[in-house]
Structures are given as C-alpha cells and as structure tokens.
Amino acid sequence: MSEFFMTKHANWFMWFMGTGRLINEGPTAARVRVSGEIVMDTSPSLTHAPERSFASTYPIRGAQRVGDRARDEYLVAPGTAIEFDWAIGAPVREWAEKSNAPDAAGGEISTAVWSYGDAGTFDNIRSEFRARPLRQDADNPNQWHLIEDTIGRIGVVTYPAKRTWLFENQSDDA
C-alpha cells in the first residue's frame, strides 16, 4: 500500500528495517548487548564471504549467545564482526505528523560492549534512525502517500562510543 488515510490508517504501524554491524577491534573477546527491536545473526561462521565482508579485514561471524538468556548477550571474537537486523517503527499518524517537523519520527538503539581483559572496558554506543517517508496529498490533507524514493529522507547516525573502565574509576570517549 502506498496511500494512507488518517481516518482509516492512522494507527497502522509502519516499520523500517536495516542491518547493523559491530566490529571487535580489541585484542580480547567482547560481550555485546543491543537494546531495541533487533534479531542477532547467530548463523555459523560466515568467514570471508566477499558479499558479506566489509573493510576487507573483518570477517563476519555468527554471534555466539552467552550468559543469561534474558539479557540477550553475545560474544564477539577479537578481529571479527557480527551482524544484526534492527527495526524502528511508529504509527502512520506519527510519521505523518513529523513529516515536516525539525525532529523527524524514528527511534534509537543502544549497544553495550564490554570486555574483562585489560582494564575492563565498557563502551555504550547510541544509534538513531529518523525518517520522513510520507508526503501529504496536495488536494486532500487527510491523504498521505509513501514516497517511493525515500533514500534522501532517511538518516541513521551512530554517535561516538562513551567509554568507561570497569576496574578503574576512569571515563573517556572511545
């Protein structure tokens, strides 16, 4: 469907999905927890598959679940990367209301990464997704259209990691 009427579709939920990649550049294994609507790729090793590798030096591996299942924690080996699928959603009404607002509709995910090696680093990484996927009909203000080419109207920003050390009372940007 590419047309929405506020009287009929205002509460319908519209999702945007993407793929996140997390690289462990450290010398030790790291534990990872990603908040939000995500599905971690836990498939077996994807080692050096050209269509799935990036930056040519980090093979993508399946994430290995560790620890308490309720916390959704995964282990990332040193020098490797993992992938996860994420989704951000909102009702059609919210996407429409914020189509011309300074702050577009969307959401965020938070990634916690920590390692007990060295000084016990803890990184908190925040990523935001914002979009303006709808445009109002010129003749009918109650009708909205999905913009076919939304690439220029979607933004994903990942902020620099905030680093703390688990075993020392230090704090710094990563």
Describe this protein's structure.
The chain is mainly β and 174 residues long. The protein has one domain. 6% of the residues lie in helices and 47% in strands. It has 2 helices and 14 strands. The chain has helices at 6-9, 92-97, and strands spanning 3-5, 13-23, 30-34, 37-40, 64-66, 73-76, 81-91, 105-114, 121-131, 134-136, 143-146, 154-158, 162-165, 171-173. Strands 3, 5, 6, 8, 9, 12, 13 and 14 form an 8-stranded antiparallel sheet that branches. A 3-stranded antiparallel sheet has the order 1-11-10. A hairpin with a 6-residue loop joins strand 10 and strand 11. The longest helix is centred in the middle third of the chain and has 6 residues, at 92-97. The protein is elongated and about 65 Å long.
What is this entry, summarized?
By secondary structure, this protein is mainly beta. The protein is 6% helix and 47% strand.
Supply database-style keywords:
174 residues; mainly beta; eight-stranded antiparallel beta sheet; three-stranded antiparallel beta sheet; 2 helices; 14 strands
Helix content: under 10%
List low-pLDDT spans: 47-53
Question: H/E order of the elements?
Answer: EHEEEEEEHEEEEEEE
**Shape category:** elongated
| Total of helices | 2
Give the N-terminus to C-terminus distance in angstroms.
Answer: 43 Å
Topology, number of strands:
14
The residue-averaged pLDDT reads: 81
Radius of gyration based on Cα positions: 20 Å
Q: Domain count, please report it.
A: 1
